[in-house]
Write a structure and sequence with these properties.
single chain; mainly alpha; 7 helices
Length: 138
């Protein structure tokens, strides 16, 4: 895989997840017509999934999942965990769990930048030594 694609693909995934979460929020959750259609017992087939999504943010489930993913990204230093944390953070932000979502998006994004830079001073002291050696001295 080309280097530029390897760098851009995780960010594109996060943006795509944000777009899908926005469509779910503004097109499926917020319209009052859809909510009123689900008030009756014999509502349309999509009332079940809609109610599950609503219960997820009423119980702050998306925020908890995002914070858990952020903790995983802190200790498991790879691209997948960083993208997972940032993506769950974006979902939590869109679905009304903004405290946990913001934290997870921040930690996931910072971890992804650190992984893509390839110089993790905590986990890779050789890379950190190389960066320090190439820094000009005053």
């Amino acid at each position: 895989m080309k280097s530029s694609l390897r760098i851009a693909l995780p960010w594109a995934i996060i943006v795509a997840v944000a777009l899908v979460a926005g469509v779910v929020r503004y097109g499926f959750i917020e319209p009052s017509d859809l909510g009123h259609a689900c008030d009756a017992k014999d509502g349309p087939w999509w009332c079940g999934p809609r109610n599950v999504i609503v219960q997820g943010f009423l119980g702050y489930g998306y925020g908890y999942a995002a914070v858990l993913a952020a903790l995983v990204a802190v200790f498991w230093r790879n691209t997948f965990s960083a993208v997972l944390a940032a993506s769950l953070g974006v979902i939590a932000l869109q679905l009304y769990c903004y405290e946990g979502g913001a934290l997870a998006l921040l930690i996931g994004s910072l971890r992804l930048v650190r992984v893509q830079a390839g110089a993790d001073p905590v986990g890779d002291s050789a890379a950190a030594d190389q960066v320090m050696a190439s820094t000009p001295r005053r």
